[in-house]
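Quarterly update, task 2.4: NDP-bound model.
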Amino acid sequence: MKKVALITGGTRGIGKQIALTLAENGYDIAINYRKENEEVNNTRKEIEEKNAKCFLVQGDVSKFEDCERFIKEIIAEYGRIDVLVNNAGITRDMLLMRMKKEDFEDVINVNLVGTFNVTKNVIPYMMKAREGRIINIASVVGISGNAGQTNYSASKAGIIGFTKSLAKEVASRNILVNAVAPGFIETSMTDILKDEIKEEIAKMIPLKRMGKTQDVANVVKFLSSEDSSYITGQVINIDGGMLM
Ligand code: NDP
């Protein structure tokens, strides 16, 4: 029986590329999505073309009851979850002076509380199986901070602390918990930036380019594989050398 990977927010951007890459590498896939749209079914087709199963579950990761329900649906379908990728995330960028309380709370609730909600519902199955991999998508700004992103940076710094603490709690059960911290990756999240800003950003990066979703998916593939079986509690930057 194939191993199963669950990717939250996996119908576009980085999450979709991770799902396709793990499908190519022998996993059956479960994808959580929030809103029904054309991309959801397109993603399923693309994954099935890679000879993997794709099970789609709707749910808002910031709602605990949604996570409880969709994890049960995945277990009913596949009977296991071997790899969890906590990828779903949002931004509401704004200087603190102008940031509304809801902008702060929404970002923390999706990015950080969402990571808790999904992990909390998946971990009993991994404990029982006595193995598992959890890969949390953080961000370099969770380490460096960034003006205009107090909400987002706090959520990503929280994810890093969560990753290290959980890694210590579950290592004895052979569950490995790591985070990746992407820099600027070309997706709809960064498409909103003006071209001049993108050029300025590229100049600051030692490798002189923004990252591609595949750059992130490759590291997640490694952290899901046997090749990383002695790595836990780590944060791997994927940023072209921007933060050293
Ligand atoms: P996108 O905006 O392209 O995709 C985000 C995904 O998360 C979408 O599938 C979205 O679903 C889903 N999502 C958002 N809110 C929820 C929710 N409440 N419940 C379930 N799913 C949700 O972003 P990226 O692919 O760029 O980002 C993916 C991850 O990588 C995020 O955690 C982000 O913070 C992180 N990251 C991205 C960087 C970048 O430069 N792009 C840099 C560093 C980190 P829907 O389609 O329904 O909106």
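Highlight for this quarter: The first strand starts at residue 4 and ends at 8.
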